[in-house]
Structure formats: structure tokens, C-alpha cells
Specification:
Strand 1, helix 2 and strand 2 form a beta-alpha-beta unit. Strands 3-2-1-4-5-10-7 form a seven-stranded mixed sheet, with helices on both faces. A three-stranded antiparallel sheet has the order 6-9-8, with helices on one face. It has a single domain, classed as Vaccinia Virus protein VP39 (Rossmann fold, 3-Layer(aba) Sandwich), CATH 3.40.50.150. The protein has eight helices and ten strands. It is of the alpha/beta class. 39% of the residues are buried. Helix content is 40%, strand content 22%. Bound molecules: S-adenosylmethionine (SAM). The site of S-adenosylmethionine has 23 residues, from helix 1 and helix 2.
Amino acid sequence: MAEKEYLLGANDTELQRLQFQHNVWKKITDGFFDRLSLEKGIRILDVGAGPGFVSLDLLERTGKESEITVLEPSELFINYIKDFSLKNNISNFRFINNTVENTELPANYYDFIFLRWVIAFVAEPELFLAKLVKSLAPRGVIAIQDYAYEGISLYPRGGAFDNIPDAVRKYYNSTGGDPYITTKIPGMFKENGIKLIDFNPHILAGNPSSRVYEWANKFFSTHIQHMADKGIVDQKTADEMLTDWIEHRESEDSIFFSPIVVDVAGKKVR
Ligand SMILES: C[S@@+](CC[C@H](N)C(=O)[O-])C[C@H]1O[C@@H](n2cnc3c(N)ncnc32)[C@H](O)[C@@H]1O
């Protein structure tokens, strides 16, 4: 199990948020997989897979001959995908209920390693990535989706929510994470003999009836208070930010822009 608690909490509310999040961002993740032209019957490692929503998409894409290792430290999340596989007679999954740091991974084994919204939480991303690269087969591909935490904004501007990007960045930093991690991945790839093959940023935006607005609502309605509880913002500031968010949500002309999510992929060349 994880040495450190997962910043956003491994509980039912977070599981449901991850499911909603998966549906909102699925077309971006699917587009990334389309560009990478994943073959059938490959060995895959889904790192920090959560409840396994992407693992299931990867299975659908790579077929019955593929072998997908679902690595996830939270027992609640991994049990969700274990139960689902049992009920649906899926035998392609292997399960590792642990962190990357505490797992011995096979060398030169996986054809495809995927991690979405995981490496930004990790305190020592260089060691983390080097370990994953060792378990990547020669010519194998490692693909990452995570933040370059800019771009996030709420319109009309001028309220307390304008200060939210900095608060969220500090929230990530509070457990050693890096909300700008994707900007460092190309350099880390180079250090590890990985050739960069894809680097694509994405932003979603919409009004209060859009799914991206609701995705943000699921995060901020819980986590602004958690930021106050952790002392990242004082209670008065947290209250003002939440009130500003709620007031914007009540106006149908308000627009929310997501933070930048970057697809980064590379191929093992040495
Ligand atoms: C935001 S969730 C993303 C889940 C999934 N990748 C997705 O996109 O739906 C982050 C996940 O990373 C896992 N995680 C956090 N630190 C980890 C580590 N050191 N090794 C492996 N997984 C980790 C958490 O338990 C959590 O399930």
C-alpha cells in the first residue's frame, strides 16, 4: 500500500469523481491512443490505474490476447476493477496493489506503459520514471497524460476564484507533487534513452451546463475546503473562492477553461 496518502483521497466520492472525469476526458485519451496506433495482443502496464477505467478502454483497443497489468495502491480502487473483471469474465488483467516505488517490476517487459494524472503527485518523479523505463521493452512506448497547470480560468474574471490556480499548485506541492510535471518529461525522457514521439496540449472549456464545468465543480466543491484544512489558504479566502465559484455557476453566460492537460509519449531506443 501507499506510504503516503494519495492527495485527493481514496474514497467513494473520489471514485465517482474519477469515473466522471474519465468520461469528460475520454475523447482526449482516445485521441492520444489513436495517434500511438496501439497493436493487438501487447503487454501493458496501467500505472496508478485508479478504478481501471482506462485499463478497460485499453483492453477493448488491444483485444483478448493482450495482458494488462493494473498497478494501483488503493485497495478500494483496485477492488472495483477486480470485481468488475470477475463479473464480466475478463481474464486479461493482472493486479498489483502497490505503489510503483514499492513494486519490483520485470525488466524490459511491457510494450506500452501508460499513466494518467499520476506522476504529478509523485515526490521523486525522476526515480519513478527511470524505474518504469527499465520495465519497458526495447522499442516499447511510455505515454503520460498530466498537467502543465496553466490556462485554468473562470470568466467573467475579477473575483476570488482568480487566485485558484496558485492554490491548487500549492496543494500539489504540499505532498511533494509537481503540477508542471509534463514540461519536464521531455528532458527526463532524454536522460533515460527515450525518444520523444508525441507532445500535445489540450484545454476543455464550457458554460455551467457543460461536462467540463461539472468536472471542475466536483473538484472545487470538495477540495477548496481541503486546501483550507491543510492551511494552503486561510478559511476566509477559501470561503470567498467557493462563493465566487458558486455565483459563476449560477450564471449561464459564465465560462470555465480547464488547466492544460498534456499528452507526452516516447519510445525506448536504448
Ligand atoms: C487522479 S487518480 C488517476 C487514476 C487513473 N489513472 C485515471 O486516469 O482515471 C491518481 C491515481 O494514482 C495513484 N497513485 C498515487 N501515487 C502513486 C504511486 N506512487 N504509484 C502508483 N500509483 C499512485 C492513486 O492511488 C490514484 O488512484
